[in-house]
Amino acid sequence: MIRDFRATDAPGIVGLLTTQFPDEEALLGTRPEAILKVIHRVTRLDARILFAFLRLIRRPVFRVLIAEENGKLVGTTLLTFPGRSVYLSMVVVDPSVRRRGLARALLGKAQDVGRRLGRQYLVLDVLAHNTPARTLYEQRLGYRPLRETAFMSREHPQEVGPERTTLAPGIRRYQETDEPALHELARRRMPPEVQNVLPIPKRLVGGDRMADRIFASQSAAWVVDRGHGAEALVVAIVTPGQDAGHLGDPLVSETVDEATARELVRTALAWCGARGVTRVVSLVPKYNTTARAALGPEGFQDALSTWTLFRPVQ
Fold this sequence. Notes:
By secondary structure, this protein is of the alpha+beta class. It has helices at 10-19, 22-28, 32-42, 45-56, 102-117, 131-140, 179-189, 192-197, 209-215, 258-273, 289-295; strands at 2-4, 62-69, 72-80, 85-93, 121-127, 144-155, 171-173, 218-225, 230-238, 244-247, 251-252, 279-285, 301-312.
């Protein structure tokens, strides 16, 4: 049976997420108690009323699907709704009940949700080396590759020094007025086929305040501006209960010299290090070569490779 999440599902979800994603969890270091706190926030009465209203007006924030067998939670996935797509995260089924069609049933329910909402695509990520999952998605369910992305990781961000109290010349804090220039830069970076499935969000910084509240995240953003508008952007995010900090997929124009790009990255690393994380991770599409060129000299290395797959909602 496929159904929606209930508050009593929390222990089962935590068990699956902390045991069935070993590669990701070794990198991110999510603690079980942090997941329980997130679930508590989204199941409070005020949150449930808000989410129900947003679903009613066809603007859902997220939806959690549960696979249940003989009264036991045996699978789950998280649905979010960027642009014209339904994005499936953490598609997981307990190893003891695999090969019984439960993953297919979860994906089928997600397709029904997308159809009712008028969405055009289903999108999910899979580790490049997860051959059984890729076989299911691509050969049996009709998903197609959209982009390859690398988790780039950098240990010990404190090594770059203390948090910057004075920023280097040409670097400043992000302002809302930077959005048009940053959107144009993002548009030039993103292949048209990716933009079609996952359009650039209306706001590149601070556009998902709901998620920040749910995860109790802190964030900061900086741009390169040498007197003629934003030429680069780095967003840093730290979430309680997770060992790793995050740099959002950086935007760096070819007009930015290597020294300035490196200092922009170091500014974000120092901010993360001051908040106690032990490593910093950035999820960077392989086509974003200028971001990779800025991160590599500052100690970032490829840790995991993933493929984003998609298929039309029919």
